[in-house]
Request: fold
Amino acid sequence: MTDTTTRPRPLEGIRVIEMGQLLAGPFTGTILGYFGAEVIKIEPPEGGDAIRGWREVQNGTSLWWHSLGRNKKSVTIDLKSAPGRDLAHQLIDSADVLIENFRPGVMEQWGLGPDDIKQSNPGLIYTRISGYGQDGPYSSKPGYASVCEGFSGFRYVNGFPGEAPVRPNLSIGDTLAAIHAALGIAMAIIERSNNGGEGQVIDVAIYEAMFNLMEAVVPEFDGAGVIREASGTTVTGIVPTNTYRCNDDKFVVIGGNGDSIYQRLMLAAGRDDLAHHPEMLNNTGRVKHEKTIDDALAGWCASSTSKHIIETLEKERVPVGPIYNVEDMLGCEHYNARGMFERVEIDGKPLKIPAIVPKLKSSPGKTCWPGPKLGSHNDEVFKDILGLEEDKLQQLRQQKII
Reply:
């Protein structure tokens, strides 16, 4: 990829120790590494992070790992052993940021909790990700994203009325927790520079990251007694905004809920009667006539191709778009013009992975290397950072600590 950097990336000079497996903690490290942090990922010697073996696996490694593990230095440490925990402690003492997503209490049992580390590294930003947070009556419950998405209220409103709530085919709870964690770390780095170098603990709960998406559900219930329900492909109280099937069996999304936009939409659909209906000139009235409006748009879309619908509405400046799959994304001129794909090489073969946003004009993030082989940075990290001699490393290898 082309390096357009004009200034150092914003997190260069920040050392991050990433502990834990799967998605929430590791994606936090991915974000930080993309924007310049030195991310040292601690993995178990046997097998490494479980993501290395998930989903589509080629030559023993998942394609996902090459994206999630980008820009990271992989070291192996057996954290179940006292010497392994001592090594981890030394690495943490050298760092600015720690990311861990173990069950609450595990790090304390290992002697690596915030109070243990603060004595030797008071400037550390200690970032903790769990299902329900580090305290409260549910903190010890298993915190899988799927369960936390339901607990957060998100799953309740996601689906069709009268049917079982639907989960998106993604672990969005983990991903959103990671984004919240990265945001918290960025704020903590700024705060640390303003208070003389003192670090702090960041406590991210997956259910709370999802709860942050819930818009007005709390004040609407507390103030009006209204429980927002599942609404299929629509959004409660905003009309029209929906997804429609066209006669080429493709779907389009139409958002025509602005007053003037609504009129342009219905005129384009050949429904002058609905465009000028006195009760449909504002959103309150349109909500009352939602089925009439929706049926009219569904019938119009069903009679035309998705290409025709999109071109027609774009001419009228009505928000409209297709439903993309990944093949559509990779072939889209806009995605490519915006640089949303980066190319890496895996054993000499090219592989596209997604770019990471946000876009910083003067100090953008970038992928320097794909997810590395397990333990490929052991010598570099243990020798250069901890100052271990080769005979000591050989002893640790023989004991299967690294």
Q: What stands out?
A: Residues 241-245+251-322 form a domain with the formyl-coa transferase, domain 3 fold (CATH 3.30.1540.10). Residues 266 and 272 are 6 Å apart (CA to CA).
